[in-house]
Amino acid sequence: MARVREKELVETFVGLADTLVADYDVVDLLHTLVRRCSLILEAADAGILVPTADGPLEVIASTSERSRLIGLLQLDAGEGPCVDAYETGQIVSVDNIADTYARWPKFATLATSLDYQAMHAIPMKLRDQTIGSLNLFSDRVGPIHPEDAAAAKALADIATIGILHERALREADTAREQLQHALNSRIVIEQAKGIIAYSDQVDMDEAFRRLRSRARASGQLLSVVAREVVEAAGRR
C-alpha cells in the first residue's frame, strides 16, 4: 500500500510539473491538485482558500460542493482551522471536530452538520508571506498520519508554485493581481455550473465535471468555456 501511494505521489508531482512548463489554467490546475490530494491521502474532501485583492479569503478550488460550502461557512463565520492556518501561517490539525465547540462554535456546528469529523489545514507560504491554505477534511475521527502530513505539505507547496509560477509574481502586489484574476474566473465557472445543473437537471458536482470535460475536449481554458456557457444562456 505504501509503495502504491508513493507511486501515486510521484505521478502527481510529475504531472503537475509538466503542466507548469506550459500555458495553464490555474483554477483547473488547483482543482486537479485537490482531487489528487483527496484521493492519495484518503481524505473525504480537500479545498484551497486564497485571498482576494481586497483581502478577504475565497474558495478557489474544492473537491465537492460540501467542501466548498464548509470553506464558505468558515469565511462567513470568521473562524475555523482554515482561517487560523491562513492567519497564523501555522499548520492547524483537528483530530476531532466535536472537541472544538469552545474554540470555534460556529465552525464545529456547521462541520458536524456536514458530517466532517476531523481536518488538517496547511498554510501555503511564499517566504514569510502566507498566500492561502490547503485544507483536508475527514469523515473519521483521528489524527493525520505523519507521512500523509508531509505529503500534504509538499502538495501545498506545489499549489503555491502553481499560483506564483511566473517570475513577475515575485512581488506581493502582482501575486494579488493574479489571484484576483483566478477568482474572477472562478465566479464565471460557478455561474456556468449553475446553468448546466439547471439545464441538464444534474447536481453541481456533475455540472462541474461536464464543464471540465468540455474544456478538455475543445482544448480551451476552463474559464473560456464557462464564459461561453454563460453568454449562450444570456442569448436565450
Short account of what is shown:
Residues 169-230 form the ANTAR domain. The chain has 236 residues and is α+β, with helices and mostly antiparallel strands.
Structure commentary:
This protein has nine helices and five strands, in the order ααββααβαββαααα. It has 236 residues and is an alpha+beta fold. Mean pLDDT is 85; it is low at 166-170. The relative contact order is 0.13. It has a five-stranded antiparallel β-sheet with strand order 2-1-5-4-3, sandwiched between helices. Residues 169-230 form the ANTAR domain.
Secondary-structure blueprint:
Elements: H1 2-20, H2 26-40, E1 45-51, E2 57-62, H3 65-77, H4 81-88, E3 92-94, H5 105-113, E4 118-126, E5 129-138, H6 146-163, H7 172-200, H8 204-218, H9 222-234
Antiparallel strand pairs: 1-2, 1-5, 3-4, 4-5
Helix pairs in contact: 1-2, 1-6, 2-6, 3-5, 7-8, 7-9, 8-9
| Count of DSSP strands | 5
Strand order of the largest sheet: 2-1-5-4-3
- Total helices: the number is 9
Give the low-confidence spans: 166-170
The outline comes out as: globular
CATH class of the largest domain: Alpha Beta
Mind telling me the CATH superfamily name of the largest domain?
GAF domain
Supply the number of structural domains.
2
Q: What value does the average pLDDT take?
A: 85
Percent in helix:
55-70%
Beta-strand share of residues: 5-15%
Class inferred from helices and paired strands: alpha+beta
| CATH level-two architecture of the largest domain | 2-Layer Sandwich
